[in-house]
Amino acid sequence: MKYTSGQYTSKQLMDNIFEVEDALTKEALAGVALAITDTTKQADYKARIEDLSLGRNTVLFDANNKPSVYCVYKPDQKARLDYLANSGTHFTASDKLHPAFIVNGAVMEILVGKYLAGRVNGTNHAVSLRGLEPAHTINFDNSLSACIAKGAGHHMVTLAEWAYLSLLAIREGFQPRGNDSYGDSYQDATEYAIAASASSGQVNRTRTGSGPLSWFLDGTPFSPADLRGNVREWLAGYRTNDGEIQILQDNNAADGTKDQSLESALWKAILQNGSLVAPGTADTYKWDYVTTAPASGSAAFLLNITKDNPPADATPYGSQTFSALAAKAGVTVHDLLRHLLIMPPLANAPLGTQYMRNVGERFGFAGGYWSYTSLAGLGCRFAVNERSYAAGDVGFRPAFYRALTA
Fold first, then answer.
1. Torsion angle, CA of 69/75/78/81, rounded to 10 degrees?
2. What tens digit of pLDDT does each residue of 8-45 get?
3. Tens of pLDDT, residues 329-361
4. pTM exceeds 0.85, yes or no
């Protein structure tokens, strides 16, 4: 379908873009390992998707000729911290770009998978295509590797990118709903998606992008789908180690050559002045229980620079509504933590519940899954499980970065 200028209803715009995306998925499924090798077809799909989305979406073919549909975010006004700060409502205004747009010190545009990575015939694929079962039962390292194998610039969605999308949604006044109540929306039970799998007669995973427009980040068919619910998404560039919060600088986690292994020297802890320092440095930010750590189960936690209430072992975990997550008295929350959504904005925090376990190395995934109801949302994030964790409710989303295009 060729886009023709004129007056369109929202439904027509949706139907037009989804028609081409469905054709793309169908053709990929007919190929070998989802590949489309005909370069003329590749160029045609790219042109049509960019045309129909008014440039907000594109399709890239990776090193294995597998297609993925991406949402394009440029380092423009909406990427600036003063825009996201909303005149200081959310954090201190600044004319700098959000860290998601800085990779290895250079300004980049970021392309976020419009859809969760998919699973076909029991095999997970690092592709962003509409109508697939979400990838699942895959650990952090394998998710990361699958995205990096797509070629230079390809990566798994990072903490910085998730934070940017969430802050953008908050700034523009819309938080997406999603599959957080067994195929339906907990917030609006009239909304549902197409089942991809079920257990004990209840829907769990739903097909990527098959929900209503309210399940897309900004309520349009040109933004990422299923950020709330369906499956939790691994995030690159964020972990805790014995409770110490550690990140890679800016959005350097988007660079597939950057080491995110246990002993990598690229992991940095954060001081109260926002400086990134070597892990283990005194007085860096840490997660800590509010009071004496429980022997099991969950308890409230906060931001601290020491572990005043360490648990006896790794059995218990912390649980805290994101909007209520606070720092211990006397601990300053640097704006960097709000930029990365490690701590909530000063107002209008994303919905969801945060979790932590401050023993051992723990990695984060976000969004919640199909049974999370009120716990799910853009502010739902975990730092509970090890990098080896894999389950049917955990998947990932591919992304890409590149130098600014015209």
1. 130
2. 677 888 999 999 999 999 999 999 999 999 999 999 99
3. 999 999 999 999 999 999 999 999 999 999 999
4. yes
How does DSSP assign 153-219, residue by residue?
TEEEPBHHHHHHHHHHHHHTT-----B-BTTB-SS-TT-B--BS-EETTEE-SB-TT-S-GGGBTTS
Q: Could you tell me which of 323, 331, 334, 330 has the C-alpha nearest to residue 380?
A: 323
Compute the distance between CA of residue 20 and CA of residue 49 in angstroms, rounded to an integer.
7
User: For 302-340, b where at least 16 C-beta lie within 10 A, e where not — what string?
Assistant: bbbbebebebeeeebbbbbbbbebbbeeebebbbbbbbb
Would you state the structure tokens that stand for residue 324, as one six-digit string?
A: 């209520």
Question: What is the spatial distance between Cα 406 and Cα 403, in angstroms, rounded to a whole number?
Answer: 10
CB 176 within 8 A of CB 214: yes
